[in-house]
Design goal:
The complex is a heterodimer of chains A (424) and B (195). Chain A contains 16 helices and 6 strands. Chain A has 424 residues and is mainly alpha-helical. In chain B, β1 and β2 form a beta hairpin. Classes of the chains: A mainly alpha (424), B mainly alpha (195). Chains A and B meet through α2, α4 and α7 of A and β1, α3, α7 and α8 of B.
């Protein structure tokens, strides 16, 4: 059939403007993982529409398959392979939904100026879209057309949306929705790309098998086997990821300066490197004098990928000097213990703020700037800045004892914080 | 009537309704996070979507007959179809209400009761307007649209988003029952012949 005729009769033609409006409206208010013009994050946030485009494409393909089956066209003898016939029926759907997906990404990318889109996110999005469309067509051939489109629309939507609320958290990376990626310090994890691509390839293979052969239970079982193996392989690929599909950015995209501590920022922040290093060096000197160990390297990287001796630095192009100091001070805090993340009472959470106030003060931050960032806790608790100043004036032994006690409290749910300074 | 029920696979309708009720009891509380446009975030329980099985199975059963024969039948097939749909709707409504007032989950089961009636009415009205084949898409698409756009920035749901509204509110029940009545009237008065 001529392309124009195919487009004219395809349900994708009338769905296109509706989907386009939905996608642009949704993407324009969807928050990105970073406020900076970072291509990976903007492309990924723009690709959030895959969560509803893939189910809609699958449902439209099921409708097309039902139409061909109902009219008896599918069962007529044909010269071309079945897969070619299917492709002829679904290309307008893939084209229109693919264009909507790209339009969603452009909605995020264009206002940021000359930002290069991330080709990996686009690739995974299009592969997922194509796989779901083929699978939708295959299912539309097998189940009655009255229920095929509606069932696929809802079930596929659940497949795309539900993993976000399920444990383990890495399940969500199998769908190809990378919209929570990435802060400017992080890159899209290659394992997430691999996992989502494997699952999509399995769905595609299963769909093609169901399309290419006449319906027997054995073929159906093989197709289900394909999909199951693909999901298992994808799960193996992503199982080490956390809630976000992030990895460290390549070393080639980092710009480093200094030694003990070394400071590394991403290339987007290269202009701030000297300033950050100066602040970090001054702070590290103060903390070493107080008897504290200082990380060998302050680095802009996701916390999940930090190595031994590394601490996370988090800045932006708009960060003030005070923001940078506060970020370096924050990197000195001990990690929140697993017991707190499991919901156990965590009195040491209070110690974190008092420690942070002291780290800020000793790194050279003005009390007024600290008060903006760390509020008080009411009349029953000492003012964090006042206590930090008291600790700063205390003897080295008393200060060291206070710091050690509160660091232990912040690392253990069973230990109360120490909110007074006692001279020995 | 026995032959009619056989043609319409009434047994399968019962099986689907029982399975739906069991699923609501077992997994009705599982939340589906929804990408929302107008609210801070909406996570709806699975019980909002599971009642879509009611219009699906009813519309499927209505498409099983031979339209040419039924179109010239001396018996009133639309009336019989409406009776079967009423039985399915009332059956699911009662099953979910009983579920909600006994083993629970209570609010989710009540929402499922309301939605099964509303979805069925919407599906039957859509059948009269568009034909049997695209009809089931209408309640499914409406449910997803309500999930996507029905949330309010201040919390709660929009007036039209009855499928995701709290089952305790009267408005959503009025919507659902009105749609059921509309669907019933449309099924009797504006039946389309399917070929």
């Amino acid at each position: 059939m001529r392309a124009v005729n195919r487009l004219r009769i395809s349900p994708a033609a009338w769905a296109f403007p509706v989907l386009l409006a939905l996608a642009i409206g949704y993407v324009s208010i969807y928050p990105t993982a970073t406020s900076e013009p970072y291509g990976v994050a903007l492309t990924a946030a723009g690709g959030v529409t895959i969560a509803f485009l893939a189910p809609v494409a699958a449902a439209l393909a099921a409708w097309e398959a039902g139409r061909l089956a109902r009219g008896g066209w599918w069962t007529l003898p044909h010269v071309r392979p079945s897969a070619a016939l299917a492709l002829d029926a679904i290309w307008p759907i893939v084209l229109s939904c693919g264009l909507v997906l790209l339009a969603g990404m452009a909605t995020r990318l264009l206002p940021a100026g000359l930002v290069v889109p991330d080709i990996r996110v686009i690739f995974v999005g299009l592969v997922v879209l194509f796989a779901h469309t083929v699978a939708g067509f295959a299912i539309g051939l097998w189940i009655p057309p009255v229920i095929a489109a509606a069932t696929i629309l809802v079930v596929d939507y659940l497949w795309m949306a539900m993993p976000r609320s399920l444990e383990p958290l890495w399940l969500r990376h199998l769908t190809g929705d990378f919209s929570s990626c990435c802060d400017v310090s992080a890159d899209l994890a290659p394992t997430a790309i691999l996992g989502a691509s494997l699952v999509a390839a399995g769905i595609l293979a299963a769909g093609l098998l169901m399309i290419s052969t006449r319906g027997t239970a054995r073929r159906l079982a093989i197709a289900a086997g394909f999909a199951t193996v693909a999901v298992a392989a994808g799960a193996l690929a992503v199982r080490d990821l956390g809630p976000d599909p992030v990895a460290a950015r390549p070393e080639s995209e980092l710009r480093c300066a200094g030694k003990a501590p070394e400071v590394c920022v991403v290339r987007e922040h290269e202009a701030r490197l000297d300033e950050v290093h100066t602040i970090a060096a001054r702070a590290a000197h103060a903390w070493t004098d107080a008897g504290l160990g200082v990380p060998d390297r302050f680095i802009e990287a996701p916390v999940e990928v930090l190595g031994p001796g590394e601490a996370r630095l988090s800045i932006s192009t708009l960060s003030t000097r005070a923001d940078i100091t506060h970020s370096i001070a924050y990197a000195m805090l001990p990690p929140i213990p697993p017991c707190a993340e499991q919901g156990m009472p965590y009195p040491g959470g209070l110690a974190l703020d008092y420690l942070l106030a002291w780290f800020d003060l000793s790194a050279g931050l003005e009390p007024a700037e600290i008060r903006i960032r760390i509020g008080g806790f009411g009349p029953d608790f000492p003012d964090p800045v006042a206590l930090a100043e008291e600790v700063a004036r205390a003897s080295p032994d008393a200060r060291a004892a206070w710091l050690t006690a509160n660091q232990r409290s912040a690392s253990d749910c069973a230990i109360e914080p120490v909110l007074t300074i006692t001279e020995r | 009537v026995t032959l009619f029920l056989k043609v319409r696979r009434a047994g399968m309708t019962v099986v689907v309704l029982v399975a739906m009720t069991a699923l609501i009891a077992a997994a009705g509380r599982v939340l589906v996070p929804v990408p929302t446009l107008f609210s801070a975030g909406l996570a709806v329980p699975l019980s909002v979507l599971l009642p879509l099985a009611v219009p699906l199975v009813v519309l499927w059963s209505q498409a099983l007959g031979e339209p040419r024969l039924e179109g010239t039948s001396t018996r009133r097939v639309p009336g019989l179809d409406l009776g079967l749909a009423l039985c399915a709707g009332l059956g699911s409504l009662l099953a979910c209400l009983v579920l909600g007032s006994t083993v629970g989950p209570t609010p989710e089961a009540y929402a499922a009761a309301r939605n099964s009636v509303g979805y069925l009415g919407l599906g039957m009205a859509a059948r009269s307007a568009f034909g049997a084949h695209p009809a089931a898409v209408v309640p499914a698409a409406y449910a997803l649209l309500a999930m996507l756009f029905g949330g309010r920035p201040s919390g709660g749901t929009s007036w039209w988003a009855w499928p995701v509204a709290d089952a305790g509110g009267l408005d959503s029940w009025v919507w659902a029952i009105s749609l059921a009545v509309l669907g019933g009237v449309a099924a009797l008065r504006f039946r389309r012949l399917e070929y």
